[in-house]
Amino acid sequence: MNDLKNEINRALEHLVETHGIRRQFWQMDDKVKDLWFGIQQGDDAVIVKDSVVNMEGPYPLDIGRKTGLIHTCSDIVIMGGRPLFALNAMQVNSIKEAKEVAEDVKKQSMGLGVPIIGGNTQMENNLIPCISFSVHGRLVAEPVPDSGAQAGDVVLMLGDVVEGSIGERVYRAKTKFETYLKLLEKKITVHASKDCSRGGWFGNLAEILVKSQRGCKIKSIPYPRLTRYMGTYLISVPESQVDGIIEIAAGNKCPVTEVGEVTEKTEIKIGKKVVVSEKKMQQLIRTYPYKKPRKK
Questions:
Q1: CA dihedral 16, 66, 108, 136 (to 10 degrees)
Q2: In the chain, where are the structural domains located?
Q3: Which pLDDT score is estimated for 14?
Q4: Which residues contact 63 (CB under 8 A, 6 or more apart)?
Q5: How far apart are the first and last CA of the chain?
Q6: Mean per-residue pLDDT, 265-283
Q7: Which CATH code, of 3.90.650.10, 1.10.10.10, 3.40.50.2300, 1.10.3720.10, is assigned to 154-287?
Q8: Residue 42: beta bridge partners?
Q9: C-alpha angle with apex 52: 50 to 55, nearest 5 degrees?
Q10: Rounded Cα distance, 53 and 289, in Å
Q11: Which pLDDT score is estimated for 296?
């Protein structure tokens, strides 16, 4: 039980660790015309008019060359966009290393159908090799925030853990992307959604709940490590939508698992045990830097 408590605490620490940085840029949103989602929302991507933009990294070079573009695209899709093109910037030790990394990045790019059309390569002394990505996309549906969960919603996890070879990662990511976009295309109601990344599935669920000012009764454990990066999607949907989602997911050969139920009371329970108290959740809600997105 101590291991569980420690993992939950780590997930909640991830949730709050960048608050100070976001507050530094808080007023910048007011300087951008037609900004829909920005610093004040702290969602998976930025939305200006119908453009969806996300940047990720720097990743350690050995990780980013296998999955960095995949993960950066994932945040575009979860907000209701389709990735169109990307840029990358890498720090390497040699041109030889840069060429090898570029081969792997190209595999991601070709597999996802998201061309790399620019970026930067540098070889500065005394810097650790790393890589970053920026992806630009366009909305294909109304954006789905991470802040709209409603009491009575069912929380589902969509997709496979993104792991394995580059080819396996691309396949699993594309399956999840196309399934999720089909849900939106078919007008399935999704109240809130989040990419399971930093903080793990538990941390990302907690962020949905804090921003939505709701709680959750967790009914299954979709992955034993609560804080592991997974690359799956968490979606909060009305119970009436679940059957339709399962049918679409089955048709796309995309795993879907019920995680729990959103509650009015702001506490998180695993089974009958309260693992994040109402007092702690209310503290997180009060101190979380969040503002509802502007109406378009």
A1: 20
A2: 2-139, 154-287
A3: 87
A4: none
A5: 46
A6: 96
A7: 3.90.650.10
A8: none
A9: 165
A10: 21
A11: 65
Query: Residues, the chain, total?
Result: 296
Q: What's the rounded mean pLDDT across residues 108-134?
A: 96
Q: Which pTM value belongs to this model?
A: 0.95
Taking 90 as the threshold, does the pLDDT of residue 240 lie above it?
yes
| Domain boundaries 2-139, corresponding CATH code | 3.30.1330.10
| CA distance to 161, 172, 187, 232, 233, per residue, from 229 (Å) | 8, 14, 29, 9, 11
State residue 1's pLDDT score: 60
Q: Is 84 within 8 Å of 137 (Cβ atoms)?
A: yes
Pairing of strands 116-122, 81-91: parallel
Q: Is the per-residue pLDDT at 202 higher than 80?
A: yes
> What Rg do the C-alpha atoms of the chain give, in angstroms?
19
Q: Which residue has the higher pLDDT, 118 or 198?
A: 118
Statement: residue 195 has pLDDT above 90: yes
